Every structure is written in C-alpha cells, then in structure tokens.
Amino acid sequence: MQKIKVGVYGATGYTGLELVRLLEQHPAVEIGFLTSESQAGRSLQSSWAQAPDVPLISASQAASGMVDQVFLCLPHTQSASQAAEAIRAGVKVIDLSADLRLDDPAIYQTWYQVEHPEPDLLPVPYGLPEIDRSQLAGAQCIANPGCYATAVLLGLTPLVQKGWITNTFPVIIDAKSGVTGAGRSPKQNLMFGEVYANFSPYNIGRNHRHLAEIEQELARRGFPAGQIIFSPHLLPTDRGILAAIYVQGQDNSNARAIFEQQYHNEPFIRMLPAGELATLGHVVRTPLAAVSLTSVNEKFLIVMVAIDNLLKGAASQAVQNFNLQWGLPETTGLLTLGETQYG
Ligand SMILES: NC(=O)c1ccc[n+]([C@@H]2O[C@H](COP(=O)([O-])OP(=O)(O)OC[C@H]3O[C@@H](n4cnc5c(N)ncnc54)[C@H](OP(=O)(O)O)[C@@H]3O)[C@@H](O)[C@H]2O)c1
Questions:
Q1: Preceding omega of 224 cis (within 30 degrees of 0)
Q2: What's the 343 CA to ligand 1 centre distance in angstroms?
Q3: DSSP letters spanning 314-341
C-alpha cells in the first residue's frame, strides 16, 4: 500500500504524543516530520520516555509540501497560520486546536479575546463523525472538536435531533476532566500539590470556551443558543472526561431507543445497559465513548458520557477524521469496541 506521509506540529504536547503513538502503528501512514520549537534537534524520546525515537524539527524547517497531511497539535492562535500554509500547498489538514471550530470569526474573538488569525479559512467541517460524517469524507481541512464538546455533543445531539428536549432552559451539564486536558505547559494550579486530593470547579456557568462550539453545533440542529449551564471541574487524575447532562424531555420511555438508533453501528460508542453508569474506567486509554442513561422520573433524564480527553477527545478522533479524509475504513489504526477488554 502507498503510505500517506504525515507531519505533526506540536508533537511534544499531550495530544501530539498520543497522536504520534497512534500514527506510528497506523498501517497507511508514514511519519514525514514532527515539530517542536523548544526541543528541535532532539528526539521525541527525550521529551517522553515511551515515545518513538523520531527526530524533532522546528516549524520553520518543516514545509507542508514535504507531506500529504498535517495534524496541528498547537495552541489556539498558532494553528490557523499553519493550516493556511498547508491548504495553499494542497496538503490535507486536521486542526486539534480551537482555531477552526467556530464558523464565525467574531464569535471566536468574543470567546478567545483575540482577532481570528485566518478568518478566510472559515467555516471548516466539524469533525465529530458519529454526529455527522457527511462533510468529512475527502475534506481538505477538518476542525477536530474540543474534548468537553465531544462528550457533551455525543450526549445531547441525539435528543436534540429528535426534538425530544422540552426544557429549553436550563440544560445543566456538570463535567469533570483530568489534568492533561489543560496541556503540558507548567501552570501553578496544575501542580501535583494543588491538584492531588483536591477537586475544583472552574469557568462555571456560561464561561468555558467549549460552550461556544457546543451551542454552535446544537443550533445547527435547531436547539437555541443560551440555554445551557456548563460547569467544568478539575479531577485529581491524569486523563478522562465525565459529563453528566441533566435534561427534561417528552417521555423517557423512548430516550434509549433514540440513542440506540443513532449509535447502534458505531464502533467507538458503547451504550451501557440500563442500570450501568458510564465511568472513566470504561474509556481511559481507549478511543471509546461510554454513554449511560438514567431516568429520574417519566420526563427527567441524566445522560452520562465518558471519554478519554486525549483519545476520543483529541488524537483518536483525529485518526477517525484522517481515515475519512482519505477514504480509509474509519477504524483503521484504532482499537474498536469489539477489540477491547471493555467491548
Ligand atoms: N489536552 C487535551 O485534552 C486536548 C483535547 C482536545 C484538544 N486540545 C487542543 O489541542 C492543542 C494541543 O493541546 P495539548 O494539550 O497537546 O497542548 P500542550 O501539551 O501544551 O502542547 C502544545 C504543543 O505545541 C507546541 N508549541 C508550538 N508553539 C507553541 C507556543 N507558541 N506556545 C506553546 N506551545 C507551543 C509545544 O511544544 P514546543 O513549545 O516545544 O513547540 C507542544 O508540542 C491545543 O490547542 C488544545 O486546546 C487539547
């Protein structure tokens, strides 16, 4: 098989490292280059002991034309210009940052407090295959969703699409993430002494940036913006997201059928049987999402969604999107539900 040559920008970050590990064992991929500004000239292994021994170069030494595909695992504001350069060179792009997720540059500026670096690139297909893969096949550029947004949209979109939800305000989402969700750069609030044996809310209410993409994607399907209360928390663990979504609807007796209709053929979505609740243990270090439904009464439902923020919330979702871009089976290079100990 002719291999697809890929470049990964930001390979020394948490999402970059996960992605390189997946790409290394992907049967259709050859690594063309890996970039890092701080570690250029060294091996990726010097940044992470379990990483493959592949040299790092700086972004200025990496020309998009050297590869067929780039993955951007860079901070927001840094990604967009690399995406523009790659697109000009005819190279396919998957951006894991927030730069290309919002259709409207003015909304980006409101949430990220900076002018959009490349507004002409927008809009770009939003890469959440289980919700809509129609625009992803063959796409030149895909915006990989945020980690919280992936969990929340997997839990809410099936209900929104069926017009099931009756309480437009509030839909309450109580979400928790492990520390790697905040990236690898050192920050005081992420130090072991601050996080260990602690549990902290942050950006609660309507302040977390992922709310913008969550509401954009739900609005596309008819759910009005401004109706969600979204409260994230920092868990004293390395990875994993658990979102509890509290919602009121027409009749709980058909809620499970709605989810099963949406996800019954999905190799990465594990619908848990009644009585079993989604936990981080169902998904951490796998590309899966686990979904559980709990009826509180006839109309009130709690949807729990668990994902690994670095895999289904970032790197494995990027590989699903890459496979779709290149017309490969979506599961190529990824362990599916039936192949894991959780299946
Ligand atoms: N962590 C998650 O769970 C998660 C999930 C979904 C999406 N994302 C998004 O994916 C992107 C990467 O996230 P991450 O968690 O992998 O971040 P990270 O651990 O902080 O890594 C960032 C990477 O970008 C490189 N970089 C290049 N220019 C940089 C600059 N000016 N400032 C800082 N780093 C720079 C860093 O290495 P050098 O400094 O050596 O170049 C590093 O390789 C972010 O946009 C993030 O929002 C993260």
A1: no
A2: 31
A3: THHHHHHHHHHHTT--TTTTS--GGGST
3-state SS assignment for residue 222? coil
E strands in the chain: 4-9, 29-35, 56-57, 69-72, 92-95, 141-143, 171-177, 200-201, 228-234, 241-248, 269-271, 289-295, 300-307
Nearest Cα to 263, choosing from 128, 342, 158? Answer: 158
* Amino acid letter for position 142: I
State the Cα–Cα distance between residues 19 and 57, nearest whole angstrom.
17
Ligand 1 pocket at CB < 6 A: 10-16, 36-39, 73-76, 78, 96-98, 146-147, 180-181, 183-185, 309-310, 313-314
pLDDT class of 250 with cuts at 50, 70, 90: confident
Q: Which of 21, 44, 46, 96 to mutate to test the pocket of ligand 1 (most atoms within 8 A of CB)?
A: 96
Residue 48 alpha carbon to ligand 1 centre in Å: 15
Q: What is the pLDDT of residues 182-200, one digit of tens each?
A: 999 999 999 999 999 999 9
Answer yes or no: 73 catalytic. no
